[in-house]
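Please predict the structure of the following assembly.
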Amino acid sequence: MSLGKGIDRPVLDPATRQRFEALALPHLGHLYRLAVRLKGTAQDAEDLVQETYVKALRAFPALRDPDRIRPWLCKILSRLVYDDHRGEPREVVVGDLAELDRFSLYDLIDQEDPFPYSDQLHRDFLARFDDAEVRRALLVLPEAYRVPLVLLYVEELSYRELAEALDCPVGTIMSRLHRGRKILERELWECAKQRGIVRTR
Amino acid sequence: MRLTCEQAVQQFFAYLDRALSGEELADLEAHLAACLDCCDKLAFSRELDAFVKRHLPDNPVPAALEARVRRALERAQGT
């Protein structure tokens, strides 16, 4: 699935643009929802969607299979977010990797036992968080972790498809999905501490 | 190969994402069949995934977005 590198200045006649619009604009809603999930705010999502469509129009003559236009557009959008941050993410957020790999929200809830009379302790713990808190936790993830995780959740791509979409090895996808979820667990635990759901300091 | 609990836990996300196969999958399933503690941890990981998915934002598409994109495409065609 080429993004049309090397064809930055194609000849785009009005008929090509109209054909592109007819094929691509029906997916605007899907792209916008994906953009909000990746960027966190409506304004950033709108900007990203516009940038995606403009880039896609320029690459459109190289699209070989118009039936696959939606995944192609999703790939362009995701790469716009991912490519700016594809290096090792900010250390301050990720911290010690070995420690992160061992982090277990399950074990911490078990040890802390915040609801002694609950017979579904872990489920009750999760039920204490609202939409905004979970979304904030997700936005703490550096883009290099957030993009593959959101694509996995929303587009339900396989590891191989994620690796192809983000142009990186399957092993990188695997470790970033693992660590992304661990950062998310850690952020939920920090949030629980701040809100006094658990007492641990 | 017999997995320790620590090794099994490291495979949970790949298992949930259906990325394990062959011997790796068989080893993990053999461990799960014999370890209730790991079954509980795996169930929590599965629940956490579903929980995060349920809380992802689902904003309605702004009414003016399509017109904005069409204008941008028109400008892009001329550049």
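Chain B touches chain A through 34 residues (CB under 8 Å). Residues 36 and 78 of chain B are 64 Å apart (CA to CA).
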